């Protein structure tokens, strides 16, 4: 019984540590997925804006000089 009393606190801390690290990794994964979705939406919006600008210029290229 002495062994259980000695090892139980360490085992409980190990289990707690596992769940904390797991929660951190899950939050990081969710944040990366949300960022990827936001970037994808921004890229689509930028593409629509470029297409609208091309149509507005009637397909004529603007000379930058």
From TrEMBL:
Region: Disordered; residue ranges are 38-65
Can you name this protein? Uncharacterized protein
Where composition is biased (Basic and acidic residues), the residues are 38-59
Membrane found in the keyword field:
yes
Keyword annotations for this protein, in alphabetical order, are:
Membrane, Transmembrane, Transmembrane helix
Parts of the chain that traverse the membrane: 6-25
């Amino acid at each position: 019984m002495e062994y259980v009393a000695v090892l139980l606190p360490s085992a409980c801390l190990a289990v707690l540590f596992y769940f904390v690290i797991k929660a951190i990794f899950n939050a990081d994964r969710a944040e990366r997925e949300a960022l990827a979705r936001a970037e994808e939406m921004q890229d689509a919006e930028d593409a629509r804006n470029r297409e609208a600008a091309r149509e507005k210029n009637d397909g004529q290229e603007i000379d930058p000089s």
